[in-house]
Specification:
Length: 64
């Protein structure tokens, strides 16, 4: 079973403050990275690697 995640929506939710953080597992990290590279507000997204390869993304200062 394949689950489609809307990474654009997840990034929007991070930047808007709807989501405090988003954790992505190593097997999905590349797909999310591709979306972040094309995301207009990527300077507001910070990723922190955890032991085991998971990455926790959070929003930084989003005041325009």
């Amino acid at each position: 079973m394949v689950i489609f995640l809307d990474y654009q929506k997840i990034l929007d939710q991070l930047v808007s403050g709807e989501l405090k953080e988003y954790k992505v597992e190593p097997e999905d990290a590349f797909d999310l990275q591709k979306t972040i590279r094309n995301y207009g507000k990527r300077q507001y997204i910070t990723g922190r690697a955890e032991r085991g390869g998971a990455i926790v993304y959070t929003a930084t200062n989003t005041d325009d």
